[in-house]
Specification:
Layout lengths: L8 E4 L9 H16 L3 E4 L13 H12 L22 H13 L3 E4 L3 H13 L15 H9 L5 E4 L6 E6 L3 E6 L7 E3 L7 H11 L4 E5 L6 H11 L5 E5 L2 E2 L12 E2 L5 E2 L3 H7 L3 H9 L14 H7 L10 E2 L2 H14 L2 H14 L6 H11 L9 H4 L1 H4 L18 H17 L4 H15 L3 H13 L7 H8 L1 H19 L1
Parallel strand pairs: 1-2, 8-9, 10-13
Antiparallel strand pairs: 3-4, 4-7, 5-6, 11-12
The chain binds one RNA strand of 75 nucleotides through α4, β6, α6, β13 and α11.
Length: 498
Amino acid sequence: MTTPLKPVRVRYAPSPTGDFHVGGARTALFNYLFARHHRGSFILRIEDTDQKRYNPQALAWLLNGLRYLGLDWDEGPEAGGDYGPYVQTQRIEVYRRHCGRLLDAGAAYRCFCTPERLEAVSKELQRKGLNPGYDRLCRNLDPEEAARRAAAGEPHTVRFKLPLDGEIAVHDVIRGDITFQNANLQDAVLMKSDGIPTYHMANVIDDHLMEISHILRGDEWVNSLPLHIHLYTAFGWEPPVMAHLPLILNPTGKGKMSKREDRAPDGRKLPVFVRTFEEMGYLPEAMINYLALLGWSYDDKTEIMGHDELIERFSLDRVNASPAVWNYDKLDHLNGHYIRQLPVEELAERLLPFARAAGFQVEREKMLQVTPLIRERITTLGDVATVANFLFMDELPPYDASELIPQKGNAAMALAALQRAGKALDAAAFTREALEVRLRDEANAMGVKAGQMFQPIRVAVCGRKAAPPLFETMEVLGRATCLKRIGQAIHKLAEHAV
RNA sequence: GGCGCUAUCGUCUAAGGGUUAGGACGGAGCCCUCUCAAGGCUCAAAUACGGGUUCGAAUCCCGUUAGCGCUACCA
């Protein structure tokens, strides 16, 4: 267990290029849990230095996603903080100043190579069977001459002057020591020709200036580690503690969890964006529980953990190094679990907007009655639209008359059952208990098993074979609706027989 | 190709030298039961391969293989 001496300050630093992805959510969650566990700060920083891929909707998607998941940030957009601004395009001057320091110290150099030349060089190197990359042509330019050309307005980038030999050992709390040969490193671009820094430089400068104590980020960054460490060194800074989180892999192709939404072979939607999960009716408690289990575990059996328990129990030394494959079934299981755990009143409240979004005009009172019937039968809140539709509609969707006939029965039997039920319903008190007693009696009188008799009634009333318990359902539907639907079923059956 | 990371049931994982290799999802079966669920019980299912080190290896070391990641004036 590492108990850091410095105050814990961690950040989630996404690039606003697209929708908020579950991989990003997992990274954000681990940072959040780590910060809260150590009573530190969770900072949100927007790394928008890529103007080409910038998406104006991305920030809203991100912020909404974080709020939905319950991951509140202490500093960042809309929260403020003493280390702002927290949006990198508002910090350009800071980067230019620091870049100047590197230039002055001879740790960086101006590069006047055109993109065309860069591409040609890389191709040529590749053709020779060498590593593609930059040939460091401008590295040996006279700095004063280069400065003059730059002052004259000649387009250029600023590149980092990396050591040409030797090796660098870096430490990662999850992976241990990793050594890289400096000869394999590239003189990375720090400042683009438009005067905007690249990720590498902006990221390092901000993490230092914002006094970030631990960097928890995705595994795709390990190869940037030596570059970043060299940068910290060049600035004379102490790097934060590094932790590279295991990647989340696609359930199918085993690649990095796709940025695009996919469909399963059966056509089922396979969401990858936080927003989609929210829209489908996944509970935030299920999402964070599931996400926490992707690359981290508490012990050999505990899996169900709420927000506070996760904070209490989270620790970096129980984070895995190996990648994790996304499992929709397990998420569904957890979501079902959390749905069933909700008190009926609260579940009803959460269900309401989903039913209405599906086009059903449902009153709160009605939803309160329906909720206990579907609680065990939905895995997402959105399922209310399909599982409870017949409880909200006036007219049943069309179904096949053959559905009314039980396996071991025939049309005549089904018809008789429905006719008896119709009469019985007229007489009986309309409570679940009374209905059950009355209809069981009818089954007896008919000389058929209760289940045999119930199926035609169920299909008549619900429009399908798989449905919530019959008597509760009838009670919620009410006498008039039940009688009407049974009448319609009798007609259907009569036509079917003809 | 180069570099890096990773390797326990199909999947998520536990076991940081000595366990009948444990749990969860999914699967199968049984129970409950008016259907469907939910729930309960049971079963099948794993240490990638080869070498070391050790009395003893899933665990430590080396190699092989495989998978993934990175290889941009993207992050």
